[in-house]
Amino acid sequence: MLASDGRLAHHEGSRTGPDPKTPARATSRSVARTAALVVALAAATGTWLVWWAMVTTWPGQRVEERVFETADRFQDVVNRVVEPVLLLGSPPWLVVGLLVVCGLGLVRRRWGATGMAAVVIIGSNLTTQVIKDGVFFRTGLVGDWNRDINTLPSGHVTVLAAAWAALLFVAPRRWRPPTALAGAVATCAMGLATVADRWHRPSDVVAAVLVVVAWAAVVCALTPARWADRPDDDSPARSGAATGMVAALLGVIAVPAAALSVLAAAATEGRAWAGLPWDGGLTAYAGGLLAACAISAAAFAVLLPLRQATARPGVA
After folding, report:
1. What confidence tier does 308 reach under pLDDT thresholds 50, 70, 90?
2. Mean pLDDT of the chain
3. What is the pLDDT of residue 62?
4. Looking at residue 12, what is its pLDDT?
5. Interior angle at CA 7, CA 6 and CA 11, nearest 5
6. What pLDDT sits at residue 278?
7. CB under 8 Å to 49, separation ≥6 — which residues?
């Protein structure tokens, strides 16, 4: 009897004692938060670099003017297709997105996650409007469309991208991989629509997504441990495989699309691929559309693992 009690006491003590994995998890969480800060800084810097390269220089403006010239040729064909998509980037849909995302968080009783999601949406959209109207400027060097009016970043793309990025904060852990995949597709669709219907230049799309990435990464980095996923949620082990697969898939799409986009921009002025059997305008147009696809895929390929890592449960 004594031996049995002793063994029982030992078993119960081992169950309630400190988890030997906790220090490792704490270290992993610290590394993830540092990585999130690095991503945020890179995205903010990238936003400025895109503006400088594509808005303040003659080559940048010339490439995007060629995109506009070619988009004008196809606008009548694509307008009816892309117009419903463009409506999703209007101010009323910003409010709808905020209510849906925060409503999901409140229904799941994730108060901290709801607040973080709201910060991503509001912060991203306010930043886009402030830097577009009060920080960045445009001096028309090429073309006549909005010659001296800065349009970078795109407000329409920001509205949609921010809503999907915010969903990563309120969605259950196991649902974040498909959410990231859907977010990349939706953001890409909006980016393609704004370029194809001549609402925005490709650089406007890229900068808008980078603004959202910066805000989402900052929020990931500053997430307190008490707002992490609950231990009774789907375990990191079960969601880890799906997270890796989706991130890898999006990365496989983003890298070649980005490379082709850069090469297309160079080819527009005959600096590469000079032997292509079509004009530089079509090359620039294809490159602009590829840029929208690349940045959309890359954004969620990065944000998904960042959110999963910084929200990992079981660390005090």
Report:
1. very high
2. 87
3. 92
4. 35
5. 120
6. 56
7. none
The Cα–Cα gap between 185 and 152 comes to: 21
Q: Which of 96, 157, 93 is CA-nearest to residue 127?
A: 157
pLDDT tens per residue, range 55-73: 999 999 999 999 998 999 8
27, HSE (Cβ side, Cα atoms, 13 Å)? 5
Euclidean distance between CA atoms 37 and 94, whole angstroms:
26
Count of other CB atoms within 10 angstroms of residue 90 = 13
Q: 219, 120 in Cβ contact below 8 A?
A: yes
Give the pair of three-digit tokens for residue 81: 């297709």
Q: For residue 223, which of 93, 77, 33 has the smallest C-alpha distance?
A: 33
Give 125-150 pLDDT, tens digit per residue. 999 999 999 999 999 888 777 788 99
272 pLDDT more than 60 = no
pLDDT at 268: 78
Q: What DSSP string describes the chain?
A: -HHHHHHHHHHHHHHHS--TTHHHHHHHHHHHHHHHHHHHHHHHHHHHHHHHHHHSSHHHHHHHHHHHHHHHHHHHHHHHHHHHHHHTTSHHHHHHHHHHHHHHHHHTT-HHHHHHHHHHHHHHHHHHHHIIIII------S-STTTT----S-HHHHHHHHHHHHHHHHS-GGGHHHHHHHHHHHHHHHHHHHHHTTSS-HHHHHHHHHHHHHHHHHHHHH--GGGSPPTTSS-HHHHHHHHHHHHHHHHHHHHHHHHHHHHHHHHHTTSS-TT-SS-HHHHHHHHHHHHHHHHHHHHHHHHHHHHHHHT-SS--
Q: Which residues contact 55 (CB under 8 A, 6 or more apart)?
A: 61, 136, 138, 150, 152, 203
Task: Write down the pLDDT at residue 229.
Answer: 86
CA 259 – CA 303 distance, rounded (Å):
21
